């Protein structure tokens, strides 16, 4: 297989984690962590969405496909969702998605869901650090490369013409 | 599969602006390196860094590039969007660029303040800038929508909270529909004799308000009515009211002739069944409206009332009516119910005739109550000793875990009134005395001086089984006295159970009708416990009084005023502005599969059965995007958070490590 | 004027797509009247050399069904591409990878091991011979096409101009496509020649689907008597109709079977299985994590069910090199 270049724990490899945080609780908490100068591992990249209910399982797969070794989802605590129940929708999808990932040979621990309230800056710090360590233990995600779709003939011709 | 690239109108020309934030960012992030990196990104025509982007000169940098370089998409990498997104959007708008063609990268709270290593911080900042630049290229101009707000208010519940809110709003010149399900307004407060801690007469302060609200030209009082259905959204609610038949018209003068001739007798619910009333009745002589009402379940149909009514106000043919009204704002003031002490058999309520609830005693001490203000035992004699048991149903995980907040104070009030009226020895059995409030602790002190007895301990049970001669014919209260560490048996003639406050039985149905939330106990949930105590998560709906949680009259009145002023402010403004992060459904792609319908907590999505597609009401959509994530056709687009924008952000953060 | 020339070819597929062409029944006579079939090895005797001899672009259109997994299939796909003006990916396998694409849940090695080694499929192979591109045996030497590491769809290998989805493609869509070629009224290249609306749009059972989340358990079709009127999801049966293109006239639904997704994803979706997963999971009627997991656990073979026709088109494409958990081990090669 051609993914041998991503063998276990290559030297210099650092876990790459994409995080999806909801605007009202977890993103606010991560701002609080910042304001409180709580240093944590630099491996996460946060994408803000209005609600954890906005997180489409396709986003998680797209992140893994784009090179993430793990995905962290942060939402409001049960009962505290700014939009009443979006976090529950997120929970349901997360539950099924983890099962799918597991069937695809991906350790479900690469996908983590945490309820983090706006006041829990320290939890952002702790969860991030834990997650980075967890992914470090698991090593790089070894996905087979996705073949490039060739497109239609005209598109290819146009691309070639554009390059000239 | 081939997908079309959603290229915005014209080629995106992105300007990227990196903020130093003094040393807050520049101290940890290589701002020059990030700027150089940004200028290498696709579609970026200019990248700059500056000491304080949020300052006027910083904003002018952006505005100059918009004007002179044709920048049509802006990325600012600085602090959190929760802090300065509005600032920079405004700066863009001032320069003629649509404020939503803007994206922020948070390289302070998310990077410089939390990353120990400078190289890591610089890398992370680059990744976030790359993501923002890729995403902003897809941003489209958006408009905030304005929706007009109607100048009518629905107030549900006409206790002191509802009356107060209705009066405030009506006084400001807006029409109010004040809806009450009972035949008379006034709520619990109308049952009280005195109010703590001042002991002023409840009727003296409430009745004028009741009369004023009924006569107010801007108030339409709708009694014996309930809300059947609510639809619409902030500023434009449609409410279906069900008016139950009263069988007595507004021609009623309240003379009471009918009541005298009525042969049908029923337990009086207003007096908690402790007295009798006729099938044609009113709750109390000062009832508002002062018309009689026929309890049709109890009526024999003899029509004697019709014969004696000189005003011709009796109408046995009346039927329930459903009326539809349009309002812009809603205030819910549906109050509370009291705990039913039958759940605690050890207190003997319903078994021993001289065990009363506090509300029953409130009526007893009231001059218009069943005993004309006298405190009497079941046999008609005056009690020589009375026990008042606090926290009945409250502060107990087996019943209600919460403190009902008002019971200590009303127990003190009842202790005072009972002692005053009968001279009886009064014992208060309490867990903790909770008397925070203006003049409350002083009132407690006064009771101590008046010689009321206080026993600290939860009562185990009440029994009529005597163990000594002194206990013969008495109710014996068995309680631990935790201050002296003994179990005591105190014989009394009368027991008053200070029952706690509970959410109304139909609180959950109400919450669904008005699309608001309840805590797990059933109290209506405020938007924020501290900073938005009367707002709800549904715009245009406010809550006031004990429907939100136990509270006393001053607090209730304050909340009613707060809810009223928020409703007035919105109606005076005349419109609401809606953030454009709402969703839109592509009717060509929608299969009408209904998946999204159940995702929306605001019922903003409905199905157009003609077209077989889902339809979004933009005014009701709050922009969470849960439906967009659930849509299996990709037919739902959330503005500012489209699938493609998020995919670009994902690929952006991972494109640079 | 010469009639337009067309060809049909199959790669990794079951033959059902060829049947679909035969299913045109009398219509095929109309087709033959307006086109010349110059290449159809399944039905008529054409040799590869005949095709190679044609000038490039001879065929107005070539319909290729089947996924691509071997060196021979790749070569033939490239040949068909060269010799035709329009290449049509015909059927789910060419379009998305199809049922053969489920082999991406396994490594090549484990497949060969299952077939020729100790696996359950071995019949008479006492020496456990695993044939390769060239295998020497006492009886002589054997040459076989090389088995690729994974299953790909047609447009992973060559450019494809149109997609005719379905397992097999519905007759009506085939006729429409052929008519469009003959009349030179083809839509923009890259188009999937099926409606871009999910199956629910025309589903006669939609009225019985509730508007609030309702899924409290999952079952498999053989476990219950299936109500012929009610939405399958309300019966606990996973139906991919909400996430699948229509154009099939609800064939499975009419047969009282839930949709398995053969017509592929809508254009607004990147990953059909994940889109279906999101919709179905969202409709689970529980807010409790362990209850949700119990319900989700009732979906047997989640990956195989969500991606029955599209594993090679999914974002993950193939089972990852073994992480730690997961069903079938996928040893690296």
What does this structure look like?
The complex is a heterotrimer of chains A (164), B (657) and C (333). Chain A has 164 residues and is α/β, with parallel strands linked by helices. Chain A has a single domain (17-163), classed as Rossmann fold (3-Layer(aba) Sandwich). Helix content of chain A is 40%, strand content 14%. Chain A has a four-stranded parallel sheet, sandwiched between helices. In chain A, helix 1 (26-35) crosses helix 4. Chain B has 657 residues and is an alpha/beta fold. Chain B folds into five domains: 14-142, Rossmann fold (3-Layer(aba) Sandwich); 152-244 and 320-335 and 504-573, FAD/NAD(P)-binding domain (3-Layer(bba) Sandwich), CATH 3.50.50.60; 245-319, Alpha-Beta Plaits (2-Layer Sandwich), CATH 3.30.70; 337-502, FAD/NAD(P)-binding domain (3-Layer(bba) Sandwich), CATH 3.50.50.60; 583-639, Alpha-Beta Plaits (2-Layer Sandwich). Chain B contains 17 helices and 34 strands. Chain B has a five-stranded parallel sheet. The longest helix of chain B is centred in the last third of the chain and has 21 residues, at 553-573. Chain C is of the alpha/beta class. Chain C folds into two domains: 5-99 and 149-192, Rossmann fold, CATH 3.40.50; 199-300, no CATH class. Helix content of chain C is 28%, strand content 13%. In chain C, the strands form three sheets. Chain C has a five-stranded parallel sheet, with helices on both faces. Chain C is globular. The interface between B and C is medium-sized, with 27 and 35 residues.
Rg result of chain C? 22 Å
**How big a fraction of the residues of chain A is strand?**
5-15%
Distance N terminus to C terminus of chain A?
Answer: 34 Å
Broad shape of chain A = globular
Query: How is the biggest beta sheet of chain A arranged?
Result: 4 strands, parallel
Most extensive interface, chain pair and sizes? A-C, 49 and 59 residues
Q: Total helix count of chain C?
A: 12
User: What is the SS-derived class of chain C?
Assistant: alpha/beta
List the keywords:
heterotrimer, B: 657 residues, alpha/beta, FAD/NAD(P)-binding domain, Alpha-Beta Plaits, 5-stranded parallel beta sheet, 17 helices, 24% strand, disordered N terminus, C: alpha/beta, Rossmann fold, 2 domains, two-stranded antiparallel ribbon, 12 helices, 28% helix
